[in-house]
Amino acid sequence: MSSTLYVERASPIHRLNPVTKLVALLCLLVVVFAIPQWWASLAVLLLVIVPAAISSGVAARLARSAGQLLLPILVVLVLVQGLTYPGGRTVLWQWGPLALTTEGLMFALTIGARLVCLVLASVLLVLTTHPGDLMSALTEQGMSPKFAYIISSTLQLIPSFQARATSILLAQQARGLTVPSNPLRRLGVLMPLLGPLVLGMFTDIEERSTAMEARGFGSTARRTTLVPVRDTRAQRVARWVIPVLALAAILVSLRWIG
Amino acid sequence: MIVLREVSYTYPEAADPALHGIELNLQPGSITGVVGASGAGKTTLAKVIAGFLPRVDGGELTGTVCVAGRNLAELSLVEAVGQVGLVIQNPFNQISGAKYTVREEIAFGMENLGTPRAEMAARVKQVAALLRISDLLDRSPYALSGGQMQLVAIASMLVLRTPVLVMDEPTSQLDPFGTRLVFAVLDQLQQAGTTVVIFEHKLELLQAHADRLLVLAGHTIVADGSPTEVLADERVDGWAIGSTRYTRAARLARGRGLLPVHGALPVSFEQAAATFGGAR
Fold first, then answer.
1. What tens digit of pLDDT does each residue of B252-277 get?
2. DSSP conformational letter for A223
3. Which residues of A touch B160 (CB under 8 A)?
4. Of all helices (H) and strands (E), which one includes residue B215?
5. Which residues of chain A make contact with B97, given a CB cutoff of 8 A?
6. Is residue B138 one of the residues assigned to a domain?
7. Is A173 inside a domain boundary?
8. Would you say residue B173 lies in a domain?
9. Which of A164, A210, A223 to mutate to test the interface with B (most CBs of B within 10 A)?
10. The domain containing residue A197 runs over which residues?
11. Is this model's pTM higher than 0.90 or not?
């Protein structure tokens, strides 16, 4: 059983220092949210995220994980904004008070493109970065180990939550619980299992916290690492250049595109 | 080495203490076994000795806990864990989740304490050889069986070389080979001067390896002595700690008329050999 979403590959993206990836992610998100045009997000998606996903060897997994998250959000976004956008004038199709407008669709496209960039880039970081490497890299950059652990352990929350939920469900099924195929009924059956799930997670967190303290996690000594996190001079330079490029892109878009 | 005076502990919002009236004086380089039925207070006592209670949950501790002459209440948690290592019951939760390989996982505690890289590598290698997990060093900690994970959890504490080691059911997921291996390692630690307190249910192994056996019942210590004395105590059935396989075999033999009705039942292999040899 894996407790992380990390997918092991020998790709150039995997080999990047986690802080380089984090800086790139943050800059990328600032760019897509600062530039109001939808095509800016599309450009980032096609020129940065898609090539990075393909070269990392996790494109299929990324599409699956991000797709599950994005698809319902995008459907709701297009329906709500396309049909109810207040500034919509160019009506493409109308049914009673509901009017599908070009302006509404363009607004949904702009927001949707940003969300696609946000989710794909974030999930790509998670899939290509081991939480341990992220923690070590952040600590090496001077971040508090406790804060770094919170960030890296958050990446593990989903798989450990899934594993615990599965074991609780199996235990209940072994005691005669039947899970109906109807989604609403299924929800009704599964809701009572949330209690043990959440309580169990709290107990685990408390015990893990004790175990971490027992291993000197609260120490203020200068930490050392058994295996140093990969870093290069080029990446150290890139961590300064990427934010400058992002700022330049934003300024160019504000000055000449509006 | 470890001295507890009139120690009682009550969890927050609990009406009754989880431990009360605990008096204990453990010598350096000794192995002390602690047995007791579920809910007797074993894990609470382990965490009190290791200095985690009341720090982590804010309960009420009365009395004093001293390790190497220093009152744990006056030490910071980091100072306390430098004196007493704690192996918790669930090995899955002992794994930090922050490391990519077993090798790094074992080194995690040393990294926190700023141990130089070369020394970390040497200690990891040594402790892995001791627990026979060298072949697991490059695997993910989450790709291990429960027993392997338990050995890694033990290794991750042994590598810190604390003068005192408290182990809360450290063999619960191990097969018989792994269990005997852990007890053999405890013997080596004892020879190196480490004080070990082990909370366990495996009475035969405690009888063979521990210098002293404590019984917790009703949230306090009800028996304290050599394992052979304690396990032969006539009150043993009332403590719900079970009995050794030698005692059970002798009871069976007595029930079938193969052993005399009177006389003490054996608790150890040597005693059983003498008893059954005498009967023959």
1. 888 888 888 787 888 888 888 888 88
2. P
3. 215-216
4. strand B212-217
5. 3-4, 131, 153, 156, 160, 208
6. yes
7. yes
8. yes
9. A210
10. 156-227
11. no
